[in-house]
Each structure stands twice: as structure tokens, then as C-alpha cells.
Amino acid sequence: MNRKRKHWGDSIEENRKKKHRKSDSLDFDKIKNDLVNNTGRVRSIEENGLLIQALAYWQKQLFSLDQACKKCVEMFGGSHNVYKKLWNHYIENNNLNIASTHERRGMQPQKVIEINDIDNDIIDAIICFAFDYTVRNNTGFSVQDLLSCLLEEYNIILDESTARYILSDLDFTWSNQSVYYGNAYEDGRIKELTRFLHQYSHALTLEKKGSHVLVATDESWSNQGTSFENSWIHKCPENNSEICYVCNKFIELANGDSKTRLSKSSIGKRVVFTHAITKDGLLCAKEEEEEEEKKIECQSFIKPEFDILNQLNIPLYTCELQLECVNDNDNDYHQQMNFEIYKQWFQNRLIPTFENQYPGKSGIFFMDQCPFHMVSDGFPSSCDNKSKIIDFYSKYNIENVYIKRYDNFGNLGDLLCFNKSNFDKFTNKKNPTSGGPTKDELLMYLFCFLRKYNPVALEPALSQYARSRGHLIIFSCPYNPSDMPFEYVNAYVKLNVKQCCKKGRTVSELKNDIRNGFYGGFTRSKRQHKCIDSHMTQGWFKKCQQNMNDEIHKFLKLTDDVNIETLWNENSSIKLTDTWIRLNKTSKTLEKLSKKFVVVIDNEIQHFC
Known about the structure:
By secondary structure, the chain is α+β, with helices and mostly antiparallel strands.
């Protein structure tokens, strides 16, 4: 089939020449846009020259090459050693022609491929990269990602403007969009990240001593119609996908799974699944092997029937769980997987399986701050009404609430005391003593009181239960999936679900595809999907810990000799065993409340912001 191909035209050639014309306005911002998160691309002489100027300037200011290189990493991204090698090469040779990536690896560099040199092999390489990248990452890519892959995998050096033109010609829409590489780290977020990194480092210390084992777990979901299409960002302009070269290539790579509309998202009934891993592999017991015929290790895992698997009141030695969503809300699986279900799974599946697999050891269960992970039995929810909050006052025998309110001019008023008999009264602004406290005042006073006298009551119920069994829980920093090993598990399982997608797939078939994503099986094209083993899980943990090392240097501003394994020590103020206290309100809300009133306990103002 012949591919529809546009004429490259004179305008793009003119733009290409303009791109390579020596610029008189090179600046830090331009170089930053070219270099951030970009490894493997050959830098121009002008770019190397600007980096040398930056290193020289920062050395003059900081009196250290390491500090100057660290500043380059913060501003431009990349590796500390790359900048150090660039500077040393410049000092020794008095030139900027440092060896490129492919030259250091012993490969012969090709010339920069231009418009007239483009052939179908290069087009196919770009499409294969686009397909693999979107499937694995479920997101779009930058032009720098493409250029780096072409260099590393195919030894092709492509001009950036040429790459952008080809992507536009193939109807890829994301080539001109900005790519988001991480969260904006504000002060509050850095505080939370600092807490997590120290606790994770403490967990590694305990694991190294042999007394504890780190266990990663999470939940995800798949639909009957989950296929590769929900990751495609190619927007086909044709009414018939059969005449589009990219669509046909994607269909070929997706094992022949053809759809009339390539922009559809996951459709059909949804199944929520969860499991757990350690560095030894999946946390699941194995069946006893017969002496005459040894079973393949990954096929010997205990895999109960799905109806038995969902009976969470029955303890089983497997962490696998699959739940079919029965509600009509296809946008939020949390309405199916809730606290009560998760708590039963935690108590009757995760804990028993761990204690069966690692007798005599304690578990450190690593999970995110999903709302149903954080539910506390000892403290009301922020969405509870006033009467439910008052019930907790009865539970802890708290008879009075002491607060001070700010007036309209920002002045703090007199101390107000509300007796329990007045808790349910409406607020009276003109005569406060005749009214009652607001819902927020009741909630914040209770929080401050428990934080001072009974902090364990504020812990999530899962943390309290884990402690009672001799285990610990570590919660990740919110919205930081790069630190979560189980995110790789979810992606790996969904990869099998996508490769096995077919028209009219039933829920039962979807569950088997999810199960095979964990334990191995064969795709529709009879290609093997390997079982999750220790080699994979160790690699996933290692990737996450490498990302944590980058965070330690970039956001905690620590020296290069500090890493996630050495961050924590006996003198650290943050410990994994600290009581976890979390108020389910944002910092913005707390700041707003702190300007309305303050809590007073034992004649001392308690700050909750």
C-alpha cells in the first residue's frame, strides 16, 4: 500500500536554513528548552560554548566545579557528570568539540538527515517509536524524546525542524505542545517530599538489616474495550482508516486490532484490580510442586476462581483481587473500590500472604495517599455534618471548646468557651457566647486536641491495624508516580490487556487477561507475555530509587554523596515509625481558616496551618 505523502516544499527548506543560521541571540532560555530532559542529542558548538560560560560564571560565584555542575543540572537538566566532562575537556583541550554519545560508544556518526534524505525506513522508525512510547507511557512525547531514540536505537541524526515537519505531515498533534516533566515543587510539597524520602530511606535501612521487607501495592482498572487506542495521539483526518499509512502501521503493531475510530477511549464494563510485590516478585503463595513433573515457576502461583477470590471475608494466601464495577459511574473506580473493601483485602489477603511468605519478618507496606487508604476511625471526615463531629466529642469525653475569633479588621478577639450543650447551636456573631461554634471550629479544635493528647487516634485505620500486627505503612508523596514501583506493574498488566483486546471481549475474558498480565500468558498474536518475576520487580524498585536520588539532589539541595540509601541515619528527626497524622484539608483551606479563628488549648494557641 502506498503511503499518502505531501510535497516537502520550499517553505520548510527555508525554515531549515533559518534554523541553522548562526543566531546572535542565543540565551539560557533557548538552551534550556533544547537540553532539559534531553539525553543523547548532539549539542551544537554554540550550545557547548554557552554551557562553558555558565560553568565559568557559577564557578566564580560558588568556588566549586561540583556546585557549578549541580547548578547546570538544576537549570538545564541532564547528568552532573556530562557537565563535568564537558568542562574538563575544555580545560585540557581548549576546544568545545567534546565527543558525542554515539562516538563514545564506538559508533560511526551519520550525517544530519535532511528533508531530501527522508525515506520510508525512517518514517517507519518514527511511527514505531510513537507507538511504543505512547503504549508504555500513556502520554505524548517531545521532539527531543524522538531525536534521542532515533540516535540511540537507529543511529539516525535528524534535524529538529525536519522532525517537526514529518510529525505534522503524519498528523501527529503533540509535536508543538509543551511536554510536562514533573510537578511544581512549592514549599509545602517539598516538606511532604522530604518526609517521604527520609521514611523510605529508613525503610531501606530496616530492610537491609533483614528485619523488614518492603512491599509495594496499588490499585488500577481496565475496561472491556481497553486497547492501544486509548494511548494514541495520532489524529487521523481520514474518514476511512484503511487509507491512512500511520493507522495501518499502528494496527499492524497492535496485532491486527482494527477500529473504525482511533480516538475512542476505553469502553465497556470496568474491572478494578490490585496486587502486591516485593523485590522477590509477586506476593503470592505457590502450589506444592509434584515430584514427577515440575511446574513452571510462574504457572505455579495460587490462582483461585474469581468468585472465591472476591469473598474477602475468607483469608487467602494471594494478594490478587479483581472487582467488577457494578455502578453506572465509569469515570471513577473509587465508587467500587472503597475503604471497607480495601480494609478487608488488607486484613485477609495482604497481611496473611506476607506473613506466610516471610515468617518472622515485619512488612513495610508502601502505598499512595488514595482517600480510602487514609480513612481514620478516630477522626471525622471533613464532609461529615456537625452532629457526627459532636459524636466524636462524646467518644473522647471533651466537654468544652476554646477559640478566639478574628474581627473584620484582623484583630484577635477575646477567648470564647463553648460548652457541649451549645455545640449544636447556630453561630451568633453579635453575641458569640449565646450561640455555638461553627463546624470548622469544632473540627479543628478536635484535631488540635487529639494531636496533643491522643495522636494515635488521628492515624489512618490501616496504619493502626498494621502496627497491631507488627508491621508498618509508608505513604508516598502525593502525585509523584515516578517514586511508585507498582506503577510499573499496572502498566505491565495493562499492556497485556491491550494486546489481548478483541471485539466483544467479555468481562470474564477481561479478568483472565488481567490475571495473565500478572502471571504470564499469550497475546492474540501468540506472543508470550512473561510473568512478573524478581528480575522485573528489582528493576522497577531500582528505577524509582534512582528517581529519588535525583529528587534528593534537585529539591533537597543535598550533596552528590547523599543518596536514598544513606539519607536516613539514627540522628534524623523524621522516622518511619513516627505516628502518621494527616488532616484531610488543603493548605489553602487551612490558611483561610487560620485567618478566621485560632484554637486555644491549656491557654496556648495551637497553629493548624
